[in-house]
Write a structure and sequence with these properties.
Elements: H1 2-29, E1 37-42, H2 48-62, H3 66-69, E2 70-74, E3 77-91, E4 94-109, E5 112-127, E6 138-142, H4 161-190
Antiparallel strand pairs: 1-5, 2-3, 3-4, 4-5, 5-6
Length: about 200
């Protein structure tokens, strides 16, 4: 009986010790999901064509070079390839110049539109007070829900893993702020009366 009890305990210990390993392997197999934003907004009383016209007007005033970024603008759908550029201070006199290229889409239907932002791709270049042409840009790829990306393509001796973590996190915060601002601005533009003023 005592021997049977020892065997049962040994089996339980083996199963318990294998569980963390199995959990770790399961976690490794989970791929990060690309970050994206999508929202359907109701616009009562407006046709798809009216919503589309307001969206086109909003694009023209929101983006510096609307014609350059517009990939498609027909059939009540607008697709833009846009860029968000910004500088981010890392520590001391070191910073980074960052670019997030993204796809912005507005699809219009009677009484509603759908706004979405996808394919957010981050590149970053470490900057110092004196310009150093030897510092190449780093390619972080598509922003995902992964908590960190501390080994981007092109990472050289100019950047540390800690700096890359900061750049990654800051880019996600920046894009969330930009996207929510655009969503609010687009929604407000739908309420603006575009009828001609009486002269």
């Amino acid at each position: 009986m005592k021997k049977l009890f020892q065997v049962v305990i040994a089996v339980i210990v083996m199963v318990m010790s294998a569980m963390p390993l199995a959990f770790a392997q399961e976690q490794e197999n989970i791929k990060p999901k690309p970050l994206s934003y999508s929202e359907v907004v109701q616009v009562e009383g407006l046709s798809a064509e009216e919503i589309y016209a307001k969206a086109r007007s909003w694009v023209a005033t929101t983006f510096n070079s609307a014609n350059d970024v517009t990939q498609l603008a027909e059939n009540n759908k607008i697709v833009l390839k846009a860029v968000e550029e910004y500088d981010f201070k890392l520590n001391g006199m070191t910073g980074s110049h960052n670019r997030v290229n993204y796809t912005f889409t507005v699809e219009c239907r009677d009484g509603r539109y759908k706004m979405s932002v996808t394919n957010m791709i981050l590149t970053s270049r470490i900057t110092t007070i004196q310009y150093n042409p030897k510092i190449e840009p780093m390619d972080f790829g598509i922003l995902t829900d992964a908590p960190t990306n501390d080994a981007p393509a092109g990472m050289g001796s100019a950047a540390t893993k800690k700096q890359c973590e900061k750049i990654w996190t800051a880019a996600k915060v920046r894009m969330e702020t930009v996207i929510l601002g655009m969503a609010a601005s687009l929604s407000e533009s739908m309420a603006v009366d575009q009828s001609e003023d009486d002269w």
